[in-house]
Amino acid sequence: MSMKRIFQKHLSMKTPLTLMTAAALTLSATVTQAYEPEGKVECLAPADPGGGWDFTCRSVGKVLEDLDLVPRSVQTINMAGAGGGVAFAHTVSKRAGDDQLLVAASTATTTRLAQGQFPGMNADMVNWIGALGADYGVIAVAEDSEYDDLPELMDAVREDPRSVKFAGGSAKGGWDHLKVLIAAQKAGIENLPRIPYLSYNNGGEAMTQVVGGHVDAFTGDITEAQGFMESGDLRVLAVLSEERLPGKFSDIPTAREQGIDAIGPNWRGFYMPADISDDAKQYWLDAMDTVYESEEWKQVMTQNGLMPFHMSADKFENFVHSQIQSIEDLSKDIGLIK
Amino acid sequence: METLGFLVDGFGVALQPHNLMFALMGAFLGTLIGALPGLGPANGVAILIPLAFTLGLAPETAMIMLTSVYAGAMYGGRISSILLNIPGDEPAMMTCLDGYPMAMKGKAAEALAISAVASFIGSLVATVGLILLAPLLADFALTFGPAEYFALFMLAFATLGGITGKNPMKTVVAACIGLMIATVGIDSTGTQRYTFNVLELYEGVDFIIAIVGLFAISELMFFIEDRAGGGKEKIAVNKLSLSWKDIRDILPTSLRGGVLGFVAGVLPGAGASLGSFISYTLEKRVLGSKGRFGEGDPRGVAAPEAGNNGASSGALVPMLTLGVPGSGTTAVLLALLISLNITPGPLMFTQNADIVWGVIAALLIGNFLLLLLNIPLVGIFVKLLSVPPMYLLPIVTMVAFVGIYSISNTTFDLYFMVAFGVFGYVLRKLEIPLVPIILGLLLGPEMEKNLRHALEISDGDWMVLWDSGLAIGLWVVAGLGLILPYIVGPVLRRRMKAGDAQSD
């Protein structure tokens, strides 16, 4: 560990940011560039291996290595617990000032922050670096369902909120549930808490129940639905994106073109600990932009069904805050939080 | 014929050199674990789960290794039954009846070889059954809605004690403990239950940690308590002289045993012990006075071994297709699958085809490996039987700690594992079985979720739970499972005892 980092680590707890930056600048006089990561860079995946966050860390880590944006390797560390809460708490309380730590995040992170499920913590306690892609929400029905498009389904919900049961892979109040509510809200339906939502362990289980005819509609992400879509068992009524998705998904109509202005991106990106120097932050913001523009990353995106979605710096920070705000409002509307 | 294509792909996965290597390693370790008295297959798999995490294995490799351990343990159980008259695990109990008398007559090597061949045939028959039945059942699983799943879980709990279970009350207590632990965490509506504001508890108790603690760590404590540093005295085995005729003689017995075992294994809760028991008793009845059962009849060795190995493959059917384990060991395997982010059920056969069929192919390959390990190389295991546990258990402990730490990199998990170890030790002292706890822990959340969903769909009408023919059928079987042990259990146990007495 370099002197600079040791110094920063010790100072960061109590010293004001300005003083710390000054100290860091004096110390780094010998270094030609303002900031460059040294040695090992860590990527914290707040879940066990195999999930989305783990994938984010490993795939972005690989591209960072290939593009020589990191001196050596990016080590993925899995820290599961409390839907990302354990990792968030760890980053806030133990890693402040550590400018070589990336933490994978997604809409699940903002949802939990919005609903106060990370007690005593909020979005301002970390640095939001950037998003590198998104998986868009879909609302789908079984192939032999009576509903032909999204407005038809929403009309049925409007008439009797209990008549259409939705199944999804997230918990109640989680992102899959919220997507239904966002669509229903945009369709002008008022009695949101009455809409039944059944939560399953993952999208696959939820789809099986829809395909089996036990539940009426599926809410999830487009990549989850791919398998059943291709086998013809599942019919996607609408994708919750701004425009039609590229490639093989271009046949699927958006909710917006059907007159229901609902957007539901499940973005994938990173945050970093608080109290890192401006130079370090700028370095990682640039790195995210470079990764997003690279051929290597484009290949990862196509292979894994990730759709274009990129934000960094202030724009991303603002997006995170506004997403948290709207999820909070919606959760209050349906009585999930007070 | 689609199945055949999948199976070929499965062989492609299982025959990859590293997968083959781990299958061999699993088969070896499994046989060893099965052979050591006291360490049953459930314990064996539980102890080796951390190894899979320590080595950072890919999901299919981890599953292949542990399924091989599972199959190996079924083979290994017979070794100490035959040589020491101590069953290596519960399903190998029946093998003592004729195996030990054979050994006493100086035919230990033949008994070991015959039982290995019978195990092979039984397992082969059942694996073919698994290949044929599993995809059918997986399709059928689509007709399971929340109400049917709820009834199925009730059935799994009702038959949990098994027909041969000793104390049904203790089984119920154990299952309730498991269900209670399962309620810890944030539930699906976002309500916190028993989390005491400890972030690590938000996602509930990780069952891998619970399993390793309950089984592996408590085992270590039993060892410390015993201070039994010494191993068994060396056992000499005669030179093998086995003719084709001997094998031909046990062939029909082994085939029958395999089929019966498979059926017993598919039934939830029945498991391998029942498989070996019914194939032994049936064989005795079929052959009648022609056999010299209890005096060292080779067919008396072949029947239970074919039965318990058949049952072990059979028990994989409900586990893979419905996510409901048919036995304690498959419950542990289920826990592994879930922690690898793979959801068993109909979807797994399409979404994780490489894993399912890789595992099934590995079972077939593993069988040949096990036959090789268990006939020419059986001497190694006989020797290992006399290795003092003071060398084995520290290794187990180390693997457990490293493995659990490597899952989430927190010391919290280690404390938790040790706490579960102490808890497991106390429970075992009280003779409360551990497997129902694991089942409660595993199935509790699923059961609750399906009940919730069923009621949500019906707008709170409880009648939905027995609204379909399938659900009613499942409830009836569950009811039978609950009542039968009280009627049939004592009879069966008396007969088993009678059998034991005869052999002494």
Overview in brief:
Chain A is α/β, with parallel strands linked by helices and 338 residues long. Chain A has helices at residues 3-11, 17-27, 52-66, 85-94, 107-114, 150-159, 175-186, 203-211, 222-230, 278-293, 295-304, 313-333, and strands at residues 41-45, 74-78, 101-106, 126-142, 166-168, 197-199, 217-221, 234-239, 265-273, 311-312.
* Tertiary shape of chain B: globular
Oligomeric state: heterodimer
Shape of chain A: globular
Radius of gyration of chain B: 22 Å
Number of domains of chain A: 2
Amount of beta strand of chain A: 15-25%
Helix content of chain B: over 70%
Which structural class best describes the helix and strand composition of chain A? alpha/beta
CATH superfamily of the largest domain in chain A, please? Bordetella uptake gene, domain 1
Number of domains of chain B: 1
- Gap between N and C termini of chain B, in Å? 51 Å
Structural class of chain B: mainly alpha
Q: Give a count of the beta strands of chain A, DSSP E runs of length 2 or more.
A: 10
Can you summarize the main beta sheet of chain A? 10 strands, mixed
Domain DUF112 (chain B): 20-439
Organism (chain B): Onishia taeanensis
Pfam family, one (chain B): TctA
Protein name (chain B): Putative tricarboxylic transport membrane protein
Core attributes:
heterodimer; A: 338 residues; alpha/beta; D-Maltodextrin-Binding Protein, domain 2; 2 domains; ten-stranded mixed beta sheet; 10 strands; 41% helix; disordered N terminus; B: 504 residues; mainly alpha; two-stranded antiparallel sheet; 21 helices; 1% strand; globular; BUG (chain A); Putative tricarboxylic transport membrane protein (chain A); signal (chain A)
Structure explained in plain terms:
Chain B: Residues 20-439 form the DUF112 domain. The complex is a heterodimer of chains A (338) and B (504). By secondary structure, chain A is of the alpha/beta class. Chain A has two domains: 3-134 and 266-333, D-Maltodextrin-Binding Protein, domain 2; 137-264, 3-Layer(aba) Sandwich (D-Maltodextrin-Binding Protein, domain 2). Chain A is built from twelve helices and ten strands. In chain A, α1 (3-11) runs antiparallel to α2 (17-27). With 504 residues, chain B is an all-alpha fold. Chain B has one domain. Chain B has 21 helices and two strands. Chain B has helices spanning 2-14, 17-35, 41-54, 59-84, 93-104, 108-140, 146-158, 168-182, 207-226, 244-266, 271-287, 298-314, 316-322, 328-339, 348-351, 353-374, 378-384, 389-408, 411-429, 435-457, 469-503, and strands spanning 185-186, 192-193. In chain B, strands 1-2 form a two-stranded antiparallel ribbon. In chain B, β1 (185-186) and β2 (192-193) form a beta hairpin. The longest helix of chain B is centred in the C-terminal third of the chain and has 35 residues, at 469-503. Chain A binds chain B through residues 48-51, 77-83, 85-86, 89, 115, 117, 119, 162, 165, 171-173, 196, 198-202, 204-205, 207-209, 211-212, 214-215, 227, 231, 336, and chain B through 59, 141-146, 186, 188-190, 197, 199-200, 202-203, 339-341, 343, 345-347, 350-351, 407-410, 449, 452-453, 456-457, 459.
